[in-house]
Write a structure and sequence with these properties.
5-stranded parallel sheet, 16 helices, globular, 5-stranded mixed beta barrel, disordered N terminus
Length: 572
């Protein structure tokens, strides 16, 4: 949920409807200090920060939820203030709460089962959206539902807004922040229809629970949806171009052991993986929605697959989750003199300012390209506001520095603009932000992998703790691991990698260990509360200091877990 407090003290929030205040805006001739285009987490939080002390600026937030393909429930915008993955997160949470097989066993019709699932998702998303509108209202941010673009006149101090009733108005603003996010990359040759063939945004419009689904992709979004639909009882086939699934996950930054654990879980849960393959053809029945889609498969790069490999998949639905690109194409950036890269990403300087002729247009979030994360986008949005209006005790262009003899430079303050906000540098910096994969189980990492540490000249060691080695994991969630990467000589922790329940929460403690230059010996001497996953940090540190003994303990824990699972299956 979006959390932000404007000002101080107790207050009463009046009820606010999920609608634009267009009529009020037409009456105002005073320019806004800031117009924000896009009401995702980046735009919404940036608007509230600019409208609140110490800035207290006059701000308007402009959004076109229907145009962006985001979540709608009738006239209610469910996506405001939420990340692109809001639907998948809500669906993931619902899949953990509702057992579809039980509902089917009760004799409920498929429509009723899906209504139960999607109803939960709508409730979760609606709660977040209503909270965001309350906060915007309290902060005094004006909200307009309409499509904004720059005029052809060549200036960048006004925006042309086409409202949902097709009326047009001009909004003047001294500064503009573009935070329109990203959109799915759509490969050619795939007949997307939003009914049975989806991308990672249009899947939000899914109106039924498929009994089988094929998913192309090996990144975070593909893995998340594969586990979601499997948990909802669907037969899932994952189509990946790489011959080795673990390698595909390592390419997006996961540690080799974390990647192997995720792949093992995919297979254990019954997800079929078509390796070294790509979708080549689609046959979608037009007159019979119950007839299966037929997807022809070919080898990576084209040509027939090796003998014995499947050449066709039959399924109820298909999802292409093969990456995203900045959503900037319809803003008429040329009219304002704003340059973009080959993917449509805004070109910005160290202040996050674009090349707009008037020097007053900034960008933040996915519109700048990778890493396409809400957390980094929000930080960029706050930095852009600081660059526009300055701030107490903050130099908006200050860049943190490291000592010359420090090979491991945990540099920069993510809340400030500067060289660390260059999109390319940000995406390549393993210390800029933690990364989480919201699959089941979760995966997360921060800092260096063993290979990255070696490449930087460190004599790196590893310490691994299995979830089954700590009491909470052994009893409640035994599958998973936590790994520490450290410098052998000093014991300094260089990276943390986790796969298992609550990994996306646990990683933040690991991030602080790396940033504060803690050592594995520090963890061995630290007392952790009993029956918590955090005990694994101490177990992993001990393993790093006693590799031979740790291997024996992990082997014993693995055998005990295997025996327990066999006993459970026999009982079932």
């Amino acid at each position: 949920a979006l959390l932000f407090v404007c000002g101080t003290g107790a207050f009463n929030v009046k009820s606010i409807s999920n609608k634009s205040r267009t009529s009020q805006l037409r009456m105002s001739e005073t320019p806004y200090d800031l117009a924000v285009i896009g009401a995702g987490p980046v735009g919404a939080q940036a608007a509230m920060v600019a409208a609140s002390p110490p800035y207290s600026k006059k701000v308007v937030l402009i959004d076109a939820p229907r145009a962006s393909g985001m979540l709608m429930n009738g006239e209610e915008d469910l996506s405001i203030g939420g990340p692109t993955g809001l639907f998948s997160k809500a669906l993931r949470d619902t899949s953990k709460q509702i057992k579809v097989s039980t509902l089917r066993g009760m004799g409920l019709r498929e429509e009723s089962v899906w209504n139960e699932v999607i109803g939960n998702c709508v409730d979760l998303a609606s709660s977040n959206a209503q909270d965001c509108f309350r906060q915007l209202d309290f902060c005094g941010v004006d909200y307009v539902r309409g499509f904004a673009s720059f005029p052809d006149s060549g200036g960048s101090k006004s925006l042309i807004v086409t409202n949902e009733d097709h009326s047009i108005q001009t909004i003047r603003a001294e500064n503009t922040l573009i935070a329109t996010g990203s959109m799915p990359f759509r490969p050619e040759g795939i007949p997307f229809d939003g009914t049975r063939i989806f991308d990672s945004d249009s899947i939000n419009q899914l109106s039924y629970l498929p009994k089988s689904i094929a998913i192309t992709g090996s990144g975070i979004i593909a893995i998340e949806f594969a586990k979601i639909f499997r948990n909802l009882g669907a037969e899932v086939t994952l189509i990946i171009r790489d011959l080795i699934p673990r390698n595909a996950l390592m390419k997006i930054g996961l540690d080799k052991d974390v990647a192997a654990t995720l792949v093992a879980d995919l297979i254990r849960s019954g997800i079929k993986i078509e390796r070294g393959a790509q979708a080549a053809s689609f046959s979608v029945p037009k007159d019979n929605q119950r007839a299966p889609i037929r997807i022809g498969l070919e080898a990576k790069g084209g040509g027939p697959r090796p003998h014995g490999m499947d050449t066709e998949i039959k399924c109820d639905a298909y999802l292409a989750a093969v990456g995203r690109k900045p959503n900037t194409a319809r803003l008429n950036l040329v009219g304002a003199g704003i340059q973009v890269d080959e993917y449509g990403g805004l070109k910005v300087d160290s202040r996050l300012a674009t090349t707009a002729k008037d020097g007053n247009v900034f960008g933040a979030g996915d519109v700048l390209g990778r890493p396409f994360l809400a957390s980094t986008g929000v930080a960029q949005g706050l930095a852009a506001v600081t660059s526009m209006f300055g701030g107490p005790d903050k130099d908006p262009v200050r860049v943190s520095s490291c000592l010359d003899d420090d090979k491991l430079c945990v540099a920069g303050d993510i809340s400030l603009a500067g060289e660390s906000f260059d999109p390319t540098s940000l995406a390549a910096n393993p210390f800029a932000f933690p990364t989480g994969v919201w699959s089941s189980p979760e995966a997360a990492y921060y800092g260096l992998s063993s290979q990255q540490a070696i490449d930087l000249g460190f004599d790196a060691g590893e310490g691994i703790a299995l979830y089954s080695e700590c009491l909470r994991g052994r009893v409640f969630s035994p599958n998973g691991l936590l790994k520490l990467v450290f410098e052998k000589e000093s014991g300094r922790i260089l990276g943390v990698h986790i796969c298992g329940d609550d990994a996306c929460e646990l990683i933040h403690y690991g991030m602080e260990l790396v940033k504060s230059k803690r050592t594995v010996q520090d963890l061995v001497n630290t007392l952790y509360s009993a029956v918590t996953f955090h005990e694994m940090y101490r177990i992993a540190a001990m393993a790093g200091l006693d590799e031979a003994g740790a291997r024996k303990r992990r082997a014993a824990a693995g055998k005990a877990l295997a025996a327990r699972l066999r006993q459970k299956r026999a009982g079932d």
